[in-house]
Amino acid sequence: MKVHYGIEEFKPLKKATVTSGTFDGVHFGHQQILSHLRKTAEQDGSETVLITFWPHPRFTLQPEIAKKELKLITNLEEKIERLMLESIDHLIVLKFDKKFSQMTSLEFVQEILINKINTTKLVIGYDHRFGRNREGGFDYLKKHQKDFGFEVEEITKQEIEDAAVSSTAIRNALLEEGDVETAEKYLGYHYSFEGKVVSGNRIGRKIGFPTANIELLDSFKLLPKIGVYAVTIEVEDKLLNGMMNIGHRPTVTDGIQQTVEVNIFDFEGDIYHQKVKVSLVHRLRSEMKFDGVDALISQLQKDKIEAIKVLSSSN
Questions:
Q1: In a domain, 125, yes or no
Q2: Residues 86, 157, 171, 280: is their CA dihedral positive or negative?
Q3: pLDDT more than 90, % of the chain
């Protein structure tokens, strides 16, 4: 897959079958749509093109609301990594800024789909809207397809609804229940996030469970429900096992600030300021306030045994 950041240098193709969307997570529903795109392109030997947008349109159109409410499954780098597995020929990443948001549907069709890409077939969902104020849609395109010089094909309502259900199911499972297995079922892979290891108060080290305190690289990245999880963590090009706590550490702190900490099994080393990737495998339990440090240590020992068991069976 060739990745094009912007449309300026893109050279028109002989034949192009095109679709567009945010494709956050590139989950099972999205994968079905992309499979449909490939099959459609095979019919006339055209190249497949996926147009996506960054930042997410809501960060431009509703910045204050999005900053508070919108949590994404993947950042741009992660999305590209997942799309690399989908056998798409071209990915075009369009910058969704104020200027782009003012482009009319006719301008989008003429300037991008026709002039820049030479679209011969456009595959879109029945409810897909584009252009300023979301004025363009399937009916409009279908009505004018002869004028535009490309064929318009509709992704079925079921395929679109499957994608919508997948997105909702993933977010609800992670946010409401910490159910990482359900998220994995819809994603086809373990949900993960990246972060930088930062200094902490070293309480974990004092009680025999040293942790890497992780600061997320992206503030908009979705974090699952507070609790303790069995995880894998990529450190210095090594994939290691561990257990993670997301929460407020009520037994040993005042419980005000939320933290993300990973106790990495069988690992010693200084990884401060390094980037790590954490993948969630199973939620072990809710965060609890214990009656003293000894009770906390006892529970952490049990958590580690369970985490090792879970991670061993998942490999």
A1: yes
A2: negative
A3: 71
